[in-house]
Amino acid sequence: MEERRAKLRAKVALSGHAAFPSTVAEVACLVINVSNIGACLSFPAGVAIPRMFSLRIGPDPKPYAVRVAWRRASDVGVAFLASRTRAPDVIPG
């Protein structure tokens, strides 16, 4: 499969919490991979995911504004609206 990302992403398995504009409670998700410009998230089945929302990753209390770039079943690729400065390093191979 051809890689189309501008930056490589580090494979991770971190908890994530998405705050949707139309809901009060956050929705838990799994962060599958991440870079300083985007991430792949996995949500529970049946969750309606809006085009834009806030995302907290792991223990970091800071929410990041994200935009959905693609959707596939319960997986969603997002782009950070502002670059993350504390993204994990990508180790090739």
Task: Give short descriptive properties of this protein.
single chain; 93 residues; mainly beta; Thrombin, subunit H; six-stranded antiparallel β-barrel; disordered C terminus
> Which percent range describes the beta-strand content?
over 45%
CATH architecture label name: Beta Barrel
CATH topology: Thrombin, subunit H
Distance between the termini: 16 Å
Mind telling me the C-alpha Rg?
A: 13 Å
Domain module count: 1
Return the CATH class: Mainly Beta
- Per the principal axes of the C-alpha atoms, what is the gross shape? globular
Name the CATH homologous superfamily.
predicted glycosyltransferase like domains
Query: Given the structure, what is the number of helices?
Result: 0
Written as H for each helix and E for each strand, in order along the chain, the element string is EEEEEE
Tell me the strand order in the biggest sheet: 1-2-3-6-5-4
Percent of residues in helical segments? Answer: under 10%
Average residue-wise pLDDT: 84
Structural class by helix and strand composition: mainly beta
Q: How many strand elements?
A: 6
Residue runs with pLDDT of under 50 for 5 or more positions = 89-93
**Biggest pleated-sheet summary:** 6 strands, antiparallel, barrel
